[in-house]
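Why does residue order matter? Because the sequence determines the fold. Keep that principle in mind as you read this record.
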Amino acid sequence: MDRFADAVLTERDREWLARLPERLEPVDGVLAVHGAPGDDLRYLLETVEPAGLREATDEEIVERLGGDAGQFSLYLCGHTHLQHARRLPGGAVVVNPGSVGWPAFADDDPFPHRIEARTPHARYTSIERRGDSWSADEHRLEYDVELAARLAEANSRPDIAQALRTGRV
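Structure:
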C-alpha cells in the first residue's frame, strides 16, 4: 500500500501529512493516537505473538500507554482497523472506532498475522461523555462494496478487493 500511496500523493499532500500531529488532545481528558502513544505502528488493543493475534491484556495496554496511562479518561486509537471498546481498571476507556474502508489485511511484523473484521461493513464508533465516564456505541454501515472492490482491482490490488468483499484476507 505504501508504494501505491507514494505513486499518487502530490507534494502538497506530503506536506499536509508531515504537519499532522503524532498525538492529539481534542478535548480535556481525551488522547488520540494512531497506534499507541509514542509508537505509531504498535497495536494498543491487540497483541501479536508467533501463534497470531490475540486481545491485549489490561497490563499490556497500560504498559503501551506508558506515561500517558492514568492521565486521560478516554484513549482513541486505530491502526488495526478492528472496532473495539475496552474499559480499563480505574475506569478509562480505550476505543478503536474500526475502519470505514479496509476491513482486513495481513502483516508480518513482528510475526505473520492477519487483521480481519470478518465483514465488509464500514464501521465507526460514536462516543458520549456521561458524567465522569464515557460510553462507546459501535456502528456498522452497508455501502457499495462491489464498487470499492472493483476500484481496488483497477489499481492492481486484488488483495484489497478480497478484503473489501469479505472482511477477510
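Residues 23-166 form a domain with the Purple Acid Phosphatase; chain A, domain 2 fold (CATH 3.60.21.10).
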